[in-house]
Design brief:
alpha/beta; Spore Coat Polysaccharide Biosynthesis Protein SpsA, Chain A; 2 domains; ten-stranded mixed β-sheet; 10 strands
Length: 317
């Protein structure tokens, strides 16, 4: 596999599919960073609109952009993994093609990472954008702070109550490349795959840097995957978490991390139920899907083990 030349410090991986109306603001936000030691690796996933022509023009006019195009649509996981296989820089960032970032995100993060080799991940604020006039702060850090991976796992999995939390979104993070390559962390093409990817990164990291005064703008389209819901999503969900549990056990990582696992498992099940509630299905369809959620839970969950760690506040006795 062709490797990139390593002249830069940071590679930003941007998977793209049919984003002719959004991709320019994404790329402009990267190109206009007050940090220029970066290259942009774009993987176009066989777009059928004008996206590829827009990308080609950007590539022609910017020497630090490399563009790949899949001949057939292979999904965002394939695109991100392809990007990971091509990276030859010290740091990696991801940004989805319909999101954008403040111009100081990468400089603030790299400054902290370069200063302290114990910091493996740097991350910043997130604002969810629904329209030009509607924006919601979801994850916000008032001060810069360096935290341990155990505390990061606590606030990521919501094992403890806190005034701050960590999002599974990829676009507000820079990660040391050797953290990913050493532990062979990849995407596996399932519902909640970003969550497991970030869970693993936090698990293996030394310290995590929280940054104030910089933002990811996470754009929620009406046709976003997080706005859709199906039986296949449920099936995939209950493949992902038992598989991750088996990974932890097989790698002697279960003991000491089981509480994090079940806390996050519960959080994601709650999110699954919220997605179902907010879906456009008719009532009888929702009830059928609810039945599948419960059926899969009892088939795929070690109930005896789960009851050791579950939050009893969810089950008033």
């Amino acid at each position: 596999m062709l490797k990139m030349n390593g002249r830069y410090l940071l590679t930003v991986i941007v998977p793209v599919y049919n984003l002719e109306n959004n991709i320019e603001i994404c790329l402009d936000s990267i190109l206009n960073q007050n940090f220029d030691d970066l290259q942009i690796l774009i993987i176009d996933d066989a777009s059928t609109d004008n996206t590829y022509n827009i990308l080609s023009a950007y590539c022609k006019n910017n020497k630090n952009i490399t563009l790949y195009r899949n001949l057939v649509n292979k999904g965002v996981s394939y695109c991100r993994n392809l990007g990971l296989s091509l990276v030859d820089t010290k740091y990696i960032a991801f940004l989805d093609g319909d999101d954008w970032i403040d111009s100081n995100c990468y400089s603030k993060a790299i400054q902290k990472l370069e200063k302290d080799n114990c910091i493996d991940i740097a991350l910043w604020n997130i604002q969810t954008v629904y329209s030009r006039s509607q924006c919601l702060k979801r994850y916000f850090y008032e001060d810069d702070n360096t935290i341990s991976n155990s505390y990061a796992l606590n606030i990521f999995t919501r094992s403890i109550n806190s005034n701050i939390y960590i999002s599974p979104l990829l676009g507000n993070k820079i990660i040391r490349t050797n953290l990913i390559s050493k532990h062979n962390i990849q995407f596996h093409g399932y519902f909640y795959e970003d969550d497991i990817f970030i869970f693993k990164c936090l698990l293996f990291a030394n310290q995590i840097q929280l940054l104030s005064g910089a933002n990811l703008y996470y754009f929620q389209r009406d046709d976003s995957v997080m706005h859709s819901f199906s039986e296949s999503n449920i099936i995939e969900f209950y493949e992902v978490f038992p598989s991750f549990r088996n990974f932890l056990i097989a790698n002697n990582l279960w003991n000491g991390n089981e509480n994090y696992f079940y806390s996050y498992y519960e959080k994601c099940i709650q999110n699954l139920l919220i997605l179902l509630h907010n879906s456009s299905f008719k009532e009888h369809e929702k009830r059928n899907l609810l039945c599948i959620i419960f059926k899969q839970f009892y088939e795929k969950t070690d109930i005896k083990d789960y009851t050791k760690y579950c939050d009893l506040r969810l089950f008033p006795l």
